[in-house]
Structures are given as C-alpha cells and as structure tokens.
Specification:
The complex is a heterodimer of chains A (about 280) and B (about 160). Chain A has about 280 residues and is mainly β. Chain A folds into two domains: about 130 residues, no CATH class; about 130 residues, no CATH class. Helix content of chain A is about 5%, strand content about 55%. Chain A is flat, with a radius of gyration of 21 Å. Chain A starts with a helix and ends with a strand. Chain B has about 160 residues and is α/β, with parallel strands linked by helices. In chain B, a hairpin with a 2-residue loop joins strand 6 and strand 7. The chains are: A mainly beta (about 280), B alpha/beta (about 160). Strand 22 of chain A pairs parallel with strand 2 of chain B, so a sheet runs across the interface.
Chain lengths: ~280, ~160
C-alpha cells in the first residue's frame, strides 16, 4: 500500500513536469528547467572541465512541496546556477568548482526548506546567495577559495544559517541577515583578511562567529540592535590584528568575545537592562 | 716415572690456567682503565658543552629575571617572548543592572569600560605589564572589581 502511494506520487509529479529535464546540458549552453507539482526531483551533473560559462536554472513553483533540486558544475568558467523553489520542505543543493561562479537559491514562502551551496578549493571571486522566507528553514554554505562572497538572508522564525569558509580562504566575505525570533546564525572562517557579519532582528536569536588561527587581519561584526531581548552574540578570534564588534539593544542580552593573539581590538555596545558583556583577551 | 711426568704435566696445566685467568683479568683491567680514560676524556668535552649549556641557561635565567620580570624594560625586548598583548577592549553599556567584564593577559593592553545607569557591575582583570584600564560608571549603586597583577581592588560606589 505504501509503495503504491509512493508510485502514485512519483507519477503525479512526473505528469506535472511542464518541461523536460536536461540532465546533461551541452558545454557552454543554457538550461532552464521548470516544474510545477509536488515531490519533483531535478538533478544536473556536469563534471567535465570547460572554460565556457554554463547557466542552469531550476524553477520548482506553485504550491509544490517536498521538491528536490541538485546542480553540480565543475571546471573554470563563470558558471551560474540558480534554483527557485516555493513551497514547504523543499531541498536545494548547488556544488561548484571554479572561478567566478555564481550560485543562487531562492526559497520564498515556505517552511522546513533546506539550502546547501558548496564552492570548492579552486573557487575565486565566487558569489553565493541563499534567500529564504518562512520558518524552520536552513541555509548552509561551504567555500574554500579566494575573495568569495557568501550571503544568507532569512525572514521568519526558527531558521538556521551557517557559513563555513575553510582552509585556503583569503579575503572572504560572509554575511548572514535574519529577521524574526529564535534564529541562529553561525560563521566559521579559517583564513587571512576575512570579513564576517551577522545581523539579527527581534528576540531570542543566537549569533556566533569563529575566526580560527589560520590567519590575521580578520574582522567580525554582530548586530542585534533592534530592541530585542534574550539575544546571544559570541565571537572567537585566534590570530593577530583581529577586530570584533558587537552592538546589542534590548534586555537580557549576552555578548561574549574571546581573542587570542596580539594587537586585537574589540568593542561591545549594549543599550538596555540586565545585559552581560564579557571580553577575554589572552 | 710416568706418575711424576703426569704430575708435572698437571702442574704445567694448572699454571697455564692461572696464566689464562691472569690474562683475562689483566685484559679486563686494561679495558676498564681504557674505558675510564675515555670516559674521563669525554667528560672534558662534555664539561665544555655543559658549561656552554649552563651559560645559555644562565643567560635565559638572566633574561627572565632582568627582562621579563622588569617592568622598566622596553616593550620590544619583552615582545620577543611568547607573551601576547597590545590588545584593546571597549565596552559601553547604557541601562541598569548590566554586567561588564574584561579579562586581559599579556602586556600593553588597554581596557575601556563605560556604564551609565544604576546597579551595574564592572570588572577588569589584567595580568601583565604596562596595561591600562579606564572605567567610568555614572549612576547609583554601581560596583567595580579591579584586579591587576593579582592585586584585587573592590570599589563599592553608592550614590543614594
């Protein structure tokens, strides 16, 4: 009975596909894939190395739910991958390995969605953006490159955002913006001259930035300054000449900065009552 | 006659064995002497090395005593050690019942804490040399704890 139900769901999804899926787009070509319905799945896997820019756009629209989109692009060449999903419990995944790549995932109007973007070791000046509107969504980035830009914007409650810019990162930029209650944002950077910013609006939010000992001259900023209560901001920095700043407004907020190294600078500003600010430099 | 011959042969054999034993003993003695001599000769070299090491140890101790422990020495000299420092911590709080805490280890650090409001707690702990701390509390029933180089100062500020 269960397997029959699954088969029916898969069949209905297949019938609702408005245009065929091009699973292996031609080098340097453009592919647009559109689905309307539920439980649809789109997977593109382009592994051959090419200098030509590819563009792949996946749109799963309507009142769809439980849809899955996955785009894989390898090689150098300013590739562009875009996923639009509107619905609940959708999943989008983009993997890129090259220079000047652009990845964008837009999940608007749903809840329980998940987005993952991965830009690999060779990524230079890559741009990745996740936009989510709704509750209980998760956005996740991994970038190991130079001068990459990662941005996550979430509106709703109970959302989670995480950006990891790893071993080889130099001059990376990571930004998380969250509007709503009970959200969590986390940025991890391991490199030189990186920049991390988390901005949260409303109450009960958690923000954490870690800039590991891989490099110096990093900058971390957390802003929770719209009068919300019960927010927590935490910054850990290891290295030299790092800068940290936390700005909080409201009550019962906690700001915590731990810095290890020399020539570090930190500024915490709190407006409200019952707040706690701690700085540990060693 | 044969008995006499056998007896003298035994005597010769016994003497031979004694000679062998003596030779082994002498050889052992010579070996021991040689080893001791070599040991004595090595210890001269080692002695020189030890003196050298002791010299660098002494220099290290002198460095620790005279440089690291002396607040009057220049920051550059002290910066050669493994100590951290040169950090700046700034906290500004406006409101009541807030807590501000700065802990700094190392040298040449700066802590600047400002609290405006009532019933606030301020704490600064600095361990190292040439650290500076600026504290400003404006309001009533505020409290301050200051520790610098293990010297604790607690200041109760009550402006009823």
């Amino acid at each position: 009975m269960k397997s029959m139900k699954a088969t029916l769901l898969a069949l209905s999804a297949f019938l609702l596909i408005t245009s065929p899926v091009s699973a292996d787009p031609v080098t340097g070509d453009t592919a647009y894939i559109t689905q309307a319905g539920s439980n649809g799945t789109v997977t593109t896997d382009k592994t051959e190395t090419t200098e030509n820019p590819d563009t792949i756009t996946v749109t799963q629209e309507g009142s769809s739910s439980c849809e899955t989109a996955e785009i894989k692009l390898a090689g150098n060449g300013n590739h562009t991958a875009t996923v639009h999903q509107s619905g609940d419990h959708d999943s989008a995944k983009v993997s890129q390995l090259g220079e000047g790549d652009t990845a964008e995932i837009d999940q608007s109007g749903g809840s329980g969605n998940s987005s993952t973007i991965s830009q690999g070791d060779l990524s230079v000046a890559g741009t990745a953006t996740i936009t989510q509107v709704g509750s209980g969504n998760t956005g996740d980035f991994t970038q190991n490159g130079v001068s990459d830009i990662a941005t996550i914007s979430q509106a709703g409650s109970g959302n989670g955002a995480a950006i990891s810019q790893g071993d080889l990162s130099v001059g990376e930029n990571a930004t998380i913006t969250q509007v709503g209650c009970g959200n969590s944002g986390e940025i991890f950077q391991y490199g030189l001259g990186d920049n991390a910013t988390i901005s949260q609006t409303a109450e009960g939010n958690t923000a954490k930035i870690t800039q590991e000992s891989g490099g110096d001259n990093n900058k971390a900023t957390i802003t929770q300054n719209t009068g919300g209560n019960g927010n927590t901001a935490s910054i850990d920095q290891y290295g030299n000449n790092q800068t940290a700043a936390i700005d909080q407004r409201g009550s019962s907020n906690v700001a915590d900065v731990d810095q290890s190294g020399t020539l570090q600078q930190v500024r915490i500003t709190q407006t409200g009552s019952g707040n706690l600010a701690m700085i540990n430099q060693h | 006659m044969l008995r006499k011959l056998h007896g003298s042969l035994n005597v010769i054999q016994n003497r031979k064995m004694m000679m062998n034993k003596l030779t082994v003993t002498l050889a052992s003695f010579v070996f021991v002497i040689g080893t001791c001599g070599a040991a004595v000769a090595q210890s001269d070299e080692e002695k020189q090395m030890t003196e050298k090491n002791r010299g660098s140890e002494m220099a290290e101790i002198r460095y620790q005593d005279e440089v690291l422990s002396n607040p009057e020495m220049s920051g550059t000299a002290r910066a050669e050690g493994a100590r951290t420092g040169g950090n700046t911590a700034i906290i500004n709080q406006n409101g009541s019942r807030n807590t501000s805490s700065v802990v700094q280890k190392g040298d040449d650090n700066v802590a600047d804490q400002t609290q405006t409001g009532n019933y606030n707690d301020l704490r600064v702990e600095q361990k190292g040399w040439h650290n500076r701390s600026y504290e400003s509390q404006t309001g009533d029933h505020n409290r301050k704890v200051k520790i610098q180089n293990d010297t604790e100062t607690i200041i109760e500020q009550v402006n009823p």
